[in-house]
Amino acid sequence: MIQTPEPASGTEPPEDAQFRAEVREWLAENLNGQFRELRGLGGPGREHEAFEERLEWDRALAAAGLTCLGWPKEWGGRDATLRQQVIFHEEYAKADAPSRVSHLGEELLGPTVIAFGTEEQKKRFLPGIRNVTELWCQGYSEPGAGSDLAAVTTSAQLEGDEWVINGQKIWTSLAHLSDWCFVVARTEKGSTRHHGLSYLLVPMKQPGVEVRPIIQLTGTAEFNEVFFDNARTAADLVVGQPGDGWKVAMGTLTFERGISTVGQQIRYARELADLEAVARENGAIENPVLADRFDKAWVGLRVLRAHVLRTLESGHDGASVDARTAAGQASVTKLLWANWHRGLGELAMDVLGAPGLIADGPGDDLNAWQRMFLFTRADTIYGGSNEVQRNIISERVLGLPREARP
Length: 406
What we know:
By secondary structure, the chain is α+β, with helices and mostly antiparallel strands. It is 45% helix and 13% strand. It has a four-stranded mixed β-sheet with strand order 1-4-5-8. The chain has a four-stranded antiparallel β-sheet with strand order 2-3-7-6, with no helix packed on it. A hairpin with an 8-residue loop joins strand 6 (209-214) and strand 7 (223-234). The chain is globular.
């Protein structure tokens, strides 16, 4: 059985070992109490599972001081070291704790506001994220600019003391449940590509904001289209200076594909181990081709972990990493995990064989492996398609000639 390595006894500094014990004990106690039925629930393709209960779980984590660990203490965090943040994600994944509903606020928007926002923005928004009383979604992709953030056309015009926003965003995770959205919009008329963009904080519950669900292959709808029709937000709710949206957005991507990816790798390791158990039970592991693919999958996980840890050590603060480096690190991470996970879904179907064609989950619904296979088809598309990620690496990081464009 594939195992996730853990530091040998005595090799961790005492403060880290103590923190690991604190996290492990809290998770063990609470996942066997009020929240015991939440183990393993939620996540991509399964965000509909026990949403309200997982929201309460997040608030319990907050009350225990186990949210926003890396944030400064003055904003409700613990000033946890990078290693301690990694420890939390390791232990959280090992405990099979439920998927967090406040990820976008805590891991993306919060660090971005801390790095680039004003004191007033920090006072206004960080407590709601820290205590899980306000939920956030991400307004990046558009129908004509799905993975090419620099091609966005959603506009925002300053009228008096408000920005007036018009346009459409797509693939907006959990927009139907969110209170706020951080939106990249074009605020300079006539600007193109990376210039003239601004990073706005927009309330979702207002006239002029319409959310339409997108039904996926799995039958669920955690992605949405969001239409802005003269929607409004206050003039001072731009993070960074107007026109600096590209820099701020790249900082957010650095946070998005950073520390939490360590926990993601451990969840993937569990999925791989579970699939290996299925292969041993039905004899598929005796197929040398499939056995070789299991070995390659294990190696791929180690590569992902090594890359993430190296990236974190080289500078995980989105404000201190230049835009070119941030784009490259984020794109490589995205390529590694997305392709690996899609490959695992394909391997699962080959391990199941013909029975994998039959929906035999609860109520004739999809089983876990079928749901994984279908949802991971989107892994290499949402959050930046493979093709665009490779273009970012080649053009913006390596300085190679731009791909021919019409």
